[in-house]
Amino acid sequence: MLIPRSHPRAASLHIREKLVRGYREGLVVEEGLLAHGRGEMFDYIIGEKTLKTSHEAIKAASRMLLLAKRPVISVNGNLAALCPKEIVLLAKVTGAKIEVNLFYASKKRKNAIALELKKNGAKEVLGLDAKFSQKIPNLDSKRRVVDERGIFIADVVLVPLEDGDRTAALKKFGKKVITFDLNPMSRTAQTADITIVDNVTRGMQILILVCKNMKKSRLDKNSKFDNKKNLSQSILAIKNNLGRMAHA
Ligand code: ATP
Ligand code: MG
């Protein structure tokens, strides 16, 4: 569903409602609500619309996902509450696997998230069966568990709204990391290979469209993307917006 662009506050309230519903249904934890608040603040400053720089990052992400041999979408509670349909659509168009991977893990919450994804058309959801658990190095014990059929063997991992320690651990483990993060200064944003500075609810829809279109043409394997430069440009756009707000 497309969120109306003409009334940004209404869009943001609609997103907030989705998250609260996800909390009541056991998908989202309290900490997830707080993390969303941090994101909302940045969304407010960027004007609740996708930045030009973010469109560039989305193109690079689409290329990386389509060229990947074993792409995986890592799903946490917030993501499942905000865009379950989009997760499934993106997995379909890119051939990515879907893995539930939580910062505050519990079996009950994992199952609730998997159910939500399945209701939205997911055929297979990884990360649920302890039989397939593997550990990534350089992280404390609980947070290092991944699925041996998913993130463990992936070449490219999309980890929207991720924590900085885990992003760094995935990078050290040799993964190419794509993230959605409204804060271009977070450790995740600064550590990932491609950071899409956008609200995941808007950005996922654009990413799906770009992937669908890109799939029809020949992919340029040599195309380069400079994440640091793109992030600096996003930070500059935020600074300019703040300046405009201060003088309004
Ligand atoms: P880091 O650990 O990477 O330094 P952090 O500790 O500041 O980040 P976390 O709670 O670990 O924050 O991660 C959540 C991140 O997700 C935040 O940077 C927040 O801005 C971002 N975020 C929250 N909601 C959304 C959303 N709907 N779309 C995109 N980004 C979001
Ligand atoms: Mg963090």
SSE arrangement:
Elements: H1 8-24, H2 30-45, H3 52-67, E1 71-75, H4 77-82, H5 84-94, E2 97-100, H6 107-119, E3 133-135, E4 145-147, E5 156-158, H7 164-172, E6 176-180, H8 187-191, E7 194-196, H9 200-216, H10 227-247
Parallel strand pairs: 1-2, 1-5, 5-6, 6-7
Antiparallel strand pairs: 3-4
Helix pairs in contact: 1-2, 3-9, 3-10, 5-9
The structure holds adenosine-5'-triphosphate (ATP) and magnesium ion.
Question: Can you walk me through this structure?
Answer:
The protein is 53% helix and 10% strand. It has helices at 8-24, 30-45, 52-67, 77-82, 84-94, 107-119, 164-172, 187-191, 200-216, 227-247, and strands at residues 71-75, 97-100, 133-135, 145-147, 156-158, 176-180, 194-196. The strands form two sheets. It has a five-stranded parallel β-sheet with strand order 2-1-5-6-7, sandwiched between helices. Strands 3-4 form a two-stranded antiparallel sheet. Strand 6, helix 8 and strand 7 (194-196) form a beta-alpha-beta unit. The longest helix has 21 residues, at 227-247. It is globular. It starts with 7 loop residues before the first helix and ends with a helix.
